[in-house]
Structure formats: C-alpha cells, structure tokens
Amino acid sequence: MVTHIITTTVTYKDHIYQLIVKVEDDAKGAVPYVVSSDDTGTERNTFELTKDVYSYAGKLPGSTDVRIYVVANKDVWNDGAGLTDVSGGYETELTERDGSIATTKIWGATLTESDYDIVVDTNRNGEWNTGEPIDNEVDVGFTAVPEFTTIAIPVAAVLGFVFLMSRRSRHSRRRN
Fold first, then answer.
1. Domains, in order of start, for the chain
2. The model scores a pTM over 0.85
C-alpha cells in the first residue's frame, strides 16, 4: 500500500481550517501488473530448480481470456516482440470480473537455471504490446537457481579434498 497525505488550508467565514486527507492506494495503481509467487501467493523472485513457479495478476480487462507466458529475460521490450514460452507452453486464464487472476501455476518443476520474465498477453496475439504487463519492473521477473545442497555438496567435497591434500603435504614434510 502507498499512503498519500494531502493537506490544504480552507478559509470559511473568517475562520481558517486545515483539511488533512489520508489516501491509501495499492502500489500497483491502475497499471496492469503480473507478479511471480509461490503457491500461497507470496511474491517471490527466486525459485529453486525443483520448485513450481506461480503468478498472480491484476488491473487486466475483466472476464477476458488471456495468455500467461514465461519467457527468457529481456531488458528492453519493443511493441510487437514475439513471445516464446520456455515453460512447456503458455497458460490460458480467464480473468475475474475485477480484472484479476488468482495465484496460478505457470511452470512446474524442473526449472532451467536462468533469468525469466512473465508476460500477460491480453489480446492473445502471441506478441507483447504496449500496456501488457511484464514482471520485470526492476531487472528480471524471476530467477531459477540450483538448490543450496546442489551447490554446497560439490563445494564441500572440493574443500575437503584441499584440506586432505594440505594435511598430507604437511605430514610428508615432517617425515623429511
């Protein structure tokens, strides 16, 4: 939520009144949006390769079929750019009357390590058009990474090997 405080001074019949209005608006405003999330609808931008990716969206045309694409990350999007889904095929969803899409699974494990964007194709033409939401406001929509144990075990093995070789080397030097 974004909170705006608006303050104004009003003079009425020789009296001065200060009017303070507090307005709360969701941070997305009236601009269509799509967000990567887990299955509970909690926003996430990093997923292990063994996890499913979900998304939710809002401020879309109401009661309309749309397509949700998972695409390779792009830093710049040009109107008319073709959409190629990398998750095994786009999802077709019917928006609610209020223009929202509830948390929806868009890519089942196993993921491929990389950076991705999520695009909602509101006119279902297979292209990104100006005004269609993309989940890459800052840099990338989400990143798929190996599980910690997938990285930690080989690193631990290498460190263990280095330690073992170091001890052997010291032990050999003592004998000489």
1. 28-150 (2.60.40)
2. no
